[in-house]
C-alpha cells in the first residue's frame, strides 16, 4: 500500500510541468520566433525586424470567439498588409491538427497566412494562455498590443508601429 502511494506521488510529481514563461507585456521585447505557415511560407523575426510590424492572432478551431474574428482579421490583413503589417494566425496546436486547420481555413475563408504550432512552442514562448490572443509587434520587435480582442483603433496607431 505504501509503495502504491509512493508510486502515485512520484508519477504526479513527474507529470506536473512548470508553467510556461510569464506572459509578455506591452512594452516588452518579444522572443525570437520562427515558424512555417501551412501555405509553405515562413515567419521569422530576423527577416521581419526593421521592415514589418506583425499582428499574431493565436487561435483554435474549437474557439467560438476566434471564428467570429475571422472576417475582421481578413479586413485588417487586406487593408494594412500592403502597408507593412504582417498578419499571421497561429493555431495553438491544442486539440487540433494541421489537417483540421487547413479544412477550417478553407471553410471560413481565412485570407491571411496561418501556422499550426505543433507542440505549442511559439504559443508558450509568448506566454499565451487563452484563445483568441492578439499580439501586435512593432518593427523594432517590441510588443505594442496584447488582448483577447482585436484592436478597434489600429488605424490611429499604425504609423507608430511602423516607426
Domain count, please report it: 1
* Overall residue-averaged pLDDT value: 86
- Shape descriptor: globular
Content of β-strand: 15-25%
Low-confidence stretches: 8-21
Major sheet description: 5 strands, mixed
Number of helices: 6
Work out the number of β strands. 7
What structural category characterises the helix and strand content? alpha/beta
- Write the CATH homologous superfamily: Glutaredoxin
> Percentage of helical residues?
25-40%
CATH topology label: Glutaredoxin
N-to-C series of helices and strands: HEEHEHEHEHEEH
Strand line-up across the major sheet: 5-4-3-6-7
The value of Rg in angstroms is: 18 Å
**Which CATH class?**
Alpha Beta
**CA distance, first residue to last residue:** 66 Å
CATH architecture: 3-Layer(aba) Sandwich
Structure description:
This protein is α/β, with parallel strands linked by helices. It has one domain (21-162): Glutaredoxin, CATH 3.40.30.10. Helices cover 36% and strands 20% of the residues. The strands form 2 sheets. It has a 5-stranded mixed β-sheet. It has a two-stranded antiparallel ribbon with strand order 1-2. Strand 1 (34-36) and strand 2 form a beta hairpin. The longest helix is centred in the middle third of the chain and has 17 residues, at 64-80. The radius of gyration is 18 Å and the shape is globular.
Brief characterization of the structure:
The chain is of the alpha/beta class and 163 residues long. The protein is built from six helices and seven strands. The protein has a single domain (21-162), classed as Glutaredoxin.
Amino acid at each position: 500500500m505504501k509503495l502504491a502511494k509512493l508510486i502515485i506521488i512520484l508519477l504526479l510529481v513527474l507529470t506536473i510541468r512548470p508553467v510556461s514563461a510569464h506572459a509578455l507585456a506591452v512594452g516588452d521585447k518579444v522572443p525570437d520566433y520562427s515558424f512555417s505557415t501551412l501555405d509553405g511560407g515562413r515567419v521569422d523575426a530576423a527577416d521581419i525586424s526593421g521592415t514589418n510590424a506583425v499582428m499574431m492572432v493565436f487561435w483554435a478551431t474549437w474557439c467560438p470567439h476566434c471564428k467570429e474574428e475571422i472576417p475582421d482579421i481578413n479586413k485588417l490583413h487586406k487593408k494594412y498588409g500592403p502597408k507593412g503589417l504582417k498578419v499571421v494566425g497561429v493555431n495553438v496546436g491544442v486539440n487540433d491538427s494541421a489537417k483540421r486547420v487547413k479544412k477550417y481555413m478553407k471553410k471560413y475563408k481565412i485570407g491571411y497566412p496561418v501556422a499550426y504550432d505543433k507542440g505549442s512552442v511559439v504559443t508558450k514562448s509568448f506566454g499565451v494562455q487563452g484563445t483568441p490572443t492578439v499580439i501586435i509587434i512593432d518593427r523594432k520587435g517590441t510588443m505594442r498590443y496584447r488582448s483577447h480582442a482585436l484592436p478597434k483603433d489600429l488605424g490611429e496607431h499604425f504609423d507608430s508601429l511602423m516607426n
